[in-house]
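Entry type: protein chain
Record version: 2
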Amino acid sequence: MGKKVKHLFLVFAVVFTTVSGASELNNSVLQISSRLKSAAKVDIVKIYHDLKSKYIKAIINDDKDAQISAIKGLIKSSKILNAPYTHYQEELSLLLKEKKPKKTKKPPKKKVSNSYIKSITSFKDKVIITLNQKVQKQDIKFYELNSKNRYRDIFDIKTKLKFKVKKILLKSIKSIRISQYNTKTVRIVLESSRPINSIFSIEKNKIIIKVDNKRYFSSKKIHYKKPVKTYTEKYFTPLAKQKIVIIDPGHGGKDTGAIGYKKLREKNAVLKIALKLGKYLKKYGYKVYYTRSRDIFIKLRNRTHFANLKKADIFISIHANAAPKRSQYLVNKGIETYFLSPARSARAKRVSALENRVDLSNMDYFSKQVFLNFLNREKIVLSNKLAIDIQRGVLKNIRKRYRVVDGGVRKAPFWVLVGAQMPAVLIETGYITNPTEAKRLFNPYYEDLLARGIADGVASYFEKNR
């Protein structure tokens, strides 16, 4: 009689949760939890570990209902087994707070832009565009379109042009074209037969575009045409078109990352490098997606979740390192590439702790260690190979012009890489707390060399692991 009642209770629980629209994972958790009422003490130990496994899976899938159900089951089983459970109660309260619906704010009304260009003047190496109102940095977009013997730097400005522009001449530039690209955008195109090093600055209502080719052509050893020919022919292959690369600029928005020399911010440096890396990979033929292409905050788990949705072949996270103490600012330097694995050294643990400090409130220490034991060994091996190729590509390219320290390829439990179903690495591009390396990280030419080195490493990895 008792057994039949228990059986009916289990059937009712499964049917009820299915009808109520719960996820498959949550249904599985509820079924395991329901066994606690009738299980012997020996079986409860197995149930307890099953619930732990389901809880970790729920975190990766970002399934809040399954997380709540699993924690409730863990609390019940812990009480029966006289095991500690207060940390689970704390996690449960945090999850229940997150589940409460947030009040939605009405989106602000879009302001109609009345911006227009008042005048355009030019000197030997710069063009000054004066507008009728203050210019915002987000109103200007810059990108490059380069091919053999034809280089173009393009600036798109959110404004209007109400007059015809006379011919403008600049030193070392073949031609400049300024026109109304669409109803909201004015496009400025700088064209030359060799690479252009253009930078822009904003001074209230003025945009100043300056061309400084001395930084590119100061050394007689540089051959202008050879790099372009070599890279396009060597790496643009049919294989590249089949591959998807996710680039993840670290931090962003409210998470500034490390703050280094002269209050330079990690989030700004890594975004510039990531965007340049994307341009090179696209030139080589790869399909590229960014987890963020502007200054916004994204949760760690959402970054790899995005990569999984895009069915990416590799995941690359870009970061900048920081020394733990002011006394080590001048000593600590170098470029390092990491892949996901339990930390072996004190240095790896310190660096991973620095990058993991945001967005890990609902995983306790024990849950993290359990998860690391379930890592896919095959993926770890491929991630190690990818890290080696990228580190080699970066050092080979940058050492043509700069002296840099090889920090090596290392293992560390970076949680931004957790959940990635493809080979994944994290690159520490230099120490933002070191004055020399901090300046380099914000130097356009150095960023370019770094991005190209990473791209070469990616291409090398795909060539070796077809």
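Comment: The first strand starts at residue 117 and ends at 122.
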